[in-house]
Specification:
The protein is mainly alpha-helical. The chain contains four helices and no strands. It is globular and about 45 Å long.
Amino acid sequence: MSSTPAAANAAWANAPGFYQILTDQPGDASWPITAATFILMHKQPKDKAAAVTALKFFAWSFEKGDKMAEELDYVPMPEKVVTDIQKSWAAEIRDEAGKPLFTPTN
């Protein structure tokens, strides 16, 4: 068993802000006690440069960090979840004029 099926089987699309309890997710291969780490950001950050830097770091982590996560006994998020999270950055984290602060390129 592993955490990957638990994360993949969760109903992320129905979870406001991607808040999802992964304990006891459906599926025979889902590990029964699983958790995700959450990062909170303001939808309209006061320090735009810091917000963009943080989002760039998370984008890099999603793109390059899977192997490192596995080496540390963590489980990378399923690709579909990563894509949905990154789409939410452009849709929800904006400047005063409503322009997205960061749009991932992948």
